[in-house]
Structure prediction request, 206 residues.
Amino acid sequence: MLFEKGQTILFQGDSVTDCGRSREDQSDLGRGYPLMIASRLTAEYPELGLRFINRGISGNRSRDLVQRWQTDCLDLKPDWVSIMIGINDTWRRYDRNDPTSAEAYGENIRWLFEKTVASGAKLIVIEPFNLPYPEDRREWHLDLDPKVAVLRELANRYAACYLPMGGLMHAAATWQPYPVWAADGVHPTAAGHALISKSFIEAISR
Prediction:
């Protein structure tokens, strides 16, 4: 178990992490994997007194995290930071013709990782993913895959844990169809969030 007594775990990312959390209630974890992780770890390790924070914001790209990192991460002084970001860096290419290059994405990620590690926090990186459903999502891999390659290289250098959710989601889809895990190929269903949660807890329990 990587987490220690009294530690604070911060979840950061886009809508997949946000998952409907209240902006009025700063303790609200949303309805997705951060809530599932926090609930299970609190139930299984109540003696640790872990604190969980969710600062995911729907629609964010890697550059948005850079802009708000001081307020929404460093100032909170977390012991652990879980980051899942990148699908909107790809999505905006296809719905707004506003692409983010793999190089620019990598620069943003490197900056986030360096600032976080320098603060004394440890990193858990969750890989962004898209599933080839509906059909138009298939070509998104042309944009997302180079970003994931950069992310993996940087995570190998800076992170304590890396969750290859793209591969794990595709593996799960050999048992149940893609929409069971993410109805639009991007936003996880309850089962998809449970898979992220399961993978996260397995990673930090090794």
